[in-house]
Amino acid sequence: MNTIKYNKINLLIMLAIIIPLGFASKFYQGPGALWSNNYLGGILYVVFFILLAGLIFPSVSSIKICIWVVLATCILETIQLWHPPFLEFIRSYFIGRTLIGSGFDFWDFPHYIIGGIIGYSILKR
Hints:
By secondary structure, the chain is mainly α. The chain has one domain. Helices cover about 75% and strands about 0% of the residues. Helix 1 packs antiparallel against helix 2 and helix 3 runs antiparallel to helix 6.
């Protein structure tokens, strides 16, 4: 089984860059703002969790990490079709909307896959 020991310092640096970029993508107002606000954040979200998982689980293969993160993100997207009071309460806060989302969008799925491919390529390096 192919496992990789990730360089923790590089992962921490990349996480420190991706976190503000992800939040900035939600507030960007220039050209391409609609795509940035709705889809770039999804790509960065997946990359963030892949890098975080690589940091926490350095002996797990990068392909397994990427598959699990993309699947989990797709499940979270699907859960956005469900609106029970406890989820609506969580979604009423910015960080809740950022982490679990507030509305289902089929076009998020291709962007999650793109994020998975980017995250995989980062972990493989």
